[in-house]
Write a structure and sequence with these properties.
Number of helices: 10
Strand order of the largest sheet: 1-4-3-2-5-6
Bound molecules: pantoate
Structural class: alpha/beta
Radius of gyration: 19 Å
Largest sheet: 6 strands, parallel
Number of strands: 9
């Protein structure tokens, strides 16, 4: 496995590989790797000759400095995880390499970055767009893989490519959320949960599974929202930030009378001070 900390040598190496007609897959991450990331890497390995993983805790996408400071950083463990998974190339830049000057670019994704995460984490998606556009320009992959757990992020990245990077040749793929055996969506932030918070956090996926079941039994959107609100607020460790049922293609609200087939329910909940998100499609 080749490890690069600097942009230029990585670009040179990737140019060399492309000249040898190698198809390149890319999995951008912030490290603290788990089986969710592994599934992205496995998909990339199936569909490409060379798989590149980046590990970079991007400061510009954190609207909360404590969250940035406490974000898990376990680089040695991540590198051996990737070695075991037969990753070909890892990119682990320092902040000064990715941001030699502060990045003041402003992206506008219309309503897409104003709702859900965008509403509660101002500036978050601008930071995601800053780093992902830089990474896309560096790696110039044929395919890039993102988890559907960050459903809105995936929509924003697709829009980033369409609106701001029309010449991008990278195809963007969304991959299914990987869950723990009990249903909790895998997330690097799960590492920060203590035993009590971990137990309470399970109610997040449980509420989503139940909401899907209610939907399939023709319960109204209002009844489903009421149930999720009550279920989460009954646990004193949990605090819900939002639960929304939206059109999965557009992320626009749906009304009781919309008979859509592609619906997503998105949720953000604090378990103690750890903020977790999850979603389910109906
Ligand atoms: O989903 C993540 O881990 C991050 O938001 C990403 C896409 C690597 C950008 O920093």
């Amino acid at each position: 496995m080749e490890v690069y900390e600097k942009i230029e040598p990585l670009k040179l190496r990737l140019k060399e590989l492309r000249e040898m007609n190698m198809i390149v897959g890319f999995v951008p991450t912030m490290g603290a790797l788990h089986n969710g990331h592994l599934s992205l890497l496995q998909k990339s390995k199936q569909e490409n000759d060379i798989s590149v993983v980046s590990i970079f805790v991007n400061p510009t996408q954190f609207n909360n400095p404590t969250d940035l400071a406490k974000y898990p950083r376990v680089l040695d463990k991540d590198l051996s995880f990737l070695r075991n998974a037969h990753c070909n190339i890892v990119f682990v830049p320092q902040v000064s390499e990715m941001y030699p000057q502060s990045d003041t670019r402003i992206f506008d994704f219309d309503y897409l970055d104003k709702i859900l995460e965008g509403e509660f984490r101002p500036g978050h998606f601008n930071g995601v767009a800053q780093v992902v556009s830089k990474l896309f320009e560096i790696v110039k992959a044929d395919n890039a893989y993102f988890g559907k757990k960050d459903f809105q992020q995936l929509a924003i990245i697709k829009e980033l490519a369409k609106k701001y990077m029309p010449d991008l040749r990278t195809r963007i793929h969304g991959c299914e959320t990987i869950r723990e055996a009990d249903g909790l969506a895998m997330s690097s932030r799960n590492l920060r949960l203590n035993a009590e918070q971990r137990e309470s956090a399970l109610k997040i996926s449980q509420s989503l599974f139940k909401s899907k079941e209610m939907f399939e039994h023709d319960k109204s959107l209002a009844e489903i929202k009421h149930f999720v609100n009550e279920y989460i607020s009954a646990d004193p460790i949990l605090r819900m930030e939002y639960f929304e049922i939206l059109d999965a293609d557009t992320l626009k609200s749906i009304s009781e009378n919309d008979f859509k087939t592609n619906i997503v329910a998105c949720i953000a909940v604090y378990s103690g001070e750890i903020r977790l998100i999850d979603n389910i499609t109906f």
